[in-house]
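Human: Here is a favour to ask of a fellow structure person. Comparing notes only helps if you start from a blank page. I am asking you to supply a protein in sequence and structure-token form. Write it directly below this note and I will take it from there.

Assistant:
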Amino acid sequence: MRVLITGANGYLGRAVVDALEAAGHEPIAMMRKATLSIHAATRMADLFDEVDLREALDGIDAVCHLAGLTRARESIVDPLRYFRVNTGGTVALLDAMADVGVSRIAFASTGAIYGTPERQPMTEDLPDAPPHPYAASKLAAELAIHAQARTGRLSATVLRLMNVAGGVDPDPTRLIPRMFAAAIDRSALEINGDGSAVRDYLHITDAAAAFSAAVENMPPLGEATQYIIGSGRGTSILDVAAAVEQHTGCQIQLIRRPPAPEPAALIGSPAKAAAELAWYPSHSDIGTIIRDIWRAIRHTDSNRKSR
């Protein structure tokens, strides 16, 4: 199957390109700017350029839509930009797909849409309660996808991802990159509260495999399905720190700040995805995630020093 990946030069996009290729598909990387690190056919287009976008969709069987903005805190101070890109970009893509006759899409959404439910692990039957503009912009995009599917012109799978981690994460604001930076630089790391807050960390390899599984198990035309893509495991901030210390051999100095108004635990159940997509998060224990990140960091440093 020929699959177009929007946001292919992003953190998750690169992994999805590799996963699709390994599964025997033909990934086509759609990018706004050229890059030398994508080992796949590429098509240059912007979601808001109607002509280039329709050309990029020519001959495509399915789309993995990953392009978008992802920083929750940033979305609070710049909400309209998040709706413009995440919601507006998705609508533009759906419009172009309808024009050229591409009817399959797998959409990268977020488990943050559920807000702070008391029931853990979270399952797909929970009500939506987006706590910030980032989650709200993704939910709005989902609603557009569901509406388009109901016209009978689209088959869609929505993947609500938990906290993707692994490899060399380019976002220094996320917890695990901050942990590694503190360990490597021997610097202190500020955390909210006592470090007991629990989150669900999903290995990037497992996240990418979920898109390959989604492409291969699309619902019938006219339907849209939704899955939580999580590890089903809860890992505290202190657990992450302990794992980073174990693999780097460096102690992390944690500075505890007052607790933030945030949920004590957010864990996503992979049960529905396992049953219907034949997908399971086989690499998403925190030890494997941290080991693979440390290996990637050392490999990158080694290549940099050899130049």
Q: What stands out?
A: The chain has ten helices and 14 strands.
